[in-house]
Amino acid sequence: MKDKKDHLPIFGIGPMLCFIPTGITAVAVFLSAKGIIPGRIDILWLKLVMTVIGILLILEGIVLFFCADLGGKLQDNIKENRLKTNGSYRFVRNPCYCLYLLGCTGAHLIAHNPYLLILSVIHHIWMTVILVRTEEKWLCDLYGEDYKHYCKKVNRLIPWLPR
Fold this sequence. Notes:
mainly alpha
């Protein structure tokens, strides 16, 4: 895989990893709105807090996604087998997947149903298990110690300041 022509896939496992939780979230929010999933909160101030936090999470995910430089240099880095650790990648190893996780969690909060937050935990576990078994394995094989060192400094899915 060290050959310049042989690089990781541009989209990786992203479509499967992101579209399934997004679809589940959409269905759950719809079912909650229709009253099929019980537990919607009717306390006005709590609904407001949940809505504001939900919107902020969605916006954070969008900012990380666009700061990941998806349309330009990221693809160049992949094609040239360079590990990207700047931009959004300083704060989270998977800013694109982070968008979906934050977006789904934001939607769960905006739906004003705390039971839906269980889905956020399930989505996080789903993404972690799949990433560890696929993309992270590929990246470790390709970049070796550089990637292991990067993993020690930067979270997988939850953005945080580098350690």
